[in-house]
Amino acid sequence: MFHTVQNKMYHVEILPPKQDTEQLEADLESFSKKYNRVINSGYCACITDNAMGLLGFQGSEIIDVMGLDVNPEKVVIHLNTFHTKEDLHNILDTCKSRGIKYLLIISGDGSDRLPRLKPEDVNAMDVESVTSVELLKYIKDCCPDDFVLGVAFNPYEPPNHEFEKMQRKIDAGASFIITQPIVEKNDRVDELLKKYPHIPVIVDAWMNKKLQILSEAVGYKIPDDETFDPVVTLKKLHRDYPQCGFYLSLLSFKTQFDLLPGIWP
Amino acid sequence: MRIVVCVKQVPATNDARIDPETKRIVREGVKAILNPFDTYAVEEAVLLRNRFGGEVIVISMGPEKALASLREAISVGADRAILLSNRAFGGSDTWATSYVLARAIQKIGQVDLVICGKQAVDGDTAQVGPGIAAHLDWLQATNVNHVEDVTDRDMKVTRMHEDGYDVCELAFPAVLTVVKGINIPRVPTLRGRLASLKSEIPVWGPADIGTDIDKIGLEGSPTRVVKTEPPKPRSTATKKISGAAVDCAIELVRELRLRSIL
Q: Which domains occur in chain A, in start order?
């Protein structure tokens, strides 16, 4: 992942087709086109797992079913705790068989109606519920040589709690960090970079014009700004965080993707 | 074990409208989903099939668009599905609907167990499951939240009611209606969903299941709806609690206790 960061690679978020789509085959085609466009442009394809609580199909399964090429250095699959143990192992097995190496382990958004890993599923008998920390430990134990595991950092959470949790994630074996989306230089991200200088940090740049959606995603009110320009903001974030790779949340493939080569300084 | 699951497609909205003329729920132009309680019925059937072998068959009475709900059930593990659809079924009340479903179950044959969700979230009657049992003259247990000790002849179930729960033994064939909490329905895989799109789902009409024409549709429905109206919207009020975190927590607990929530 350092290699990836040092090569100034964009990590482009791709949302998988939703479970309730009425045009699954068309959505799969659209997903495949976006995926190939990202990979062929030399960027890293990052596929979400039920982002914002919206049920979607699993990224590794889509790659497998659609027969998409995998460059191990250019694919990151998000994996959250809202799965059965059987599903988890199916996902891990598919990733292994397709050569997918990078997993972003997150607790995830879900509801009571979704299956969720139980502590006994991941050999974590000392906790009441499974978070990214327990899931990460479990994957490290059951597949020690197969994956490079990353974790999320949320600069909107109370800092003491978030940094304490981050330390547990690092202790559990996290090898890279992706932040939650930001729209300007952020003190917590600065602190993260100082605290973990040897761990690659990928800064998530919010690429949607609507800040209201970001507020909903992070659970923290970000003031609306009608003049908010994601591309200008991304350029500024590059200046603020020259040592970091960038994750692009909700990038528009129609209007923003082709601008990317000219953005990185 | 051959298990039949009866499902219903319902409007995906809390903003249900009722036709003032027909007194029926307006379904046109509203996105439809598989009745949420039926997802627990499908999951329980799949779990039982996975443990004891056999087959899960999903049936639904409704218009052609109900095929989507049947495909949803196949995508999470049902083996096959049958749609019961014909203009003659239109206007059926819960008694006529349960008659049609019972006839289809008899036509399928060799059925050990029928599972329904406890009720549909549109009509909220909870009558179709018991109606099927009555038409078939089978044992039934409603509001089941746990199944255990399944043999090839009988099973033990826990059924919930206002004052607690009962543990009952039922000999097969039997009908269960199940509640939320009996399991956590699985999420379809992509392969499951794609397979479901390719599944051929036969459509049966009155002649296929040998229904008595006087017992289906409006003619066969003894229910007469005198008046129907949407419930009054619930009044809501927002109270903002501000101040130090500890004070806010204390105030929140006090407010919740005042409302008997805690």
A: 2-262 (3.20.20.220)
Give me the DSSP letters along B2-35: EEEEE--EEES-S---B-TTT-SB--TTS-EEE-
Beta strands in A71-200 (DSSP E): 75-79, 102-105, 148-153, 176-179
Q: Is it the case that residue B185 has pLDDT exceeding 90?
A: yes
> Which tokens is B9 given?
């497609």
In this predicted model, what pLDDT tens digit does every residue of B109-144 receive, in sequence order?
A: 999 999 999 999 888 889 999 999 999 999 999 999
In a 3-state reduction of DSSP, which class is residue A102?
A: strand
Question: Which secondary-structure segment (H or E) carries B174?
Answer: strand B174-178
pLDDT below 70 — which residues of chain A?
1-8
Q: In what order do the strands lie in the sheet with B139-148?
A: B164-171, B154-161, B139-148, B174-178, B113-117, B2-6, B55-61, B80-84, B203-204
pTM: 0.84
Q: Kindly identify which residue of chain B lies nearest to residue A65, measuring between CA atoms.
A: B191
B191 lies in some domain: yes
Nearest Cα residue to B59 out of B129, B110, B4: B4
Which CATH number covers residue B133?
A: 3.40.50.620
What the block records as the tokens of B79 is 């083996």
- Domain of residue B29 covers 2-215
State the ipTM, two decimals. Answer: 0.89
Residue B256 placed within a domain: no
C-alpha dist (Å) from residue A203 to A11, A158, B76: 10, 19, 37
Residue B227 lies in a domain: no
> Tokens 């800064």 — which residue?
A203
Q: Is residue B228 part of a domain?
A: no
Cβ–Cβ pairs < 8 A, chains A and B = 37
Interface residues of A toward B, Cβ cutoff 8 Å, are 19-20, 22, 24-25, 55, 57-58, 61-62, 65, 84, 87, 90, 113-116
Structural domain total, chain B: 1
DSSP H or E segment with residue B158: strand B154-161
Distance of alpha carbon A264 from alpha carbon A260, whole angstroms: 7
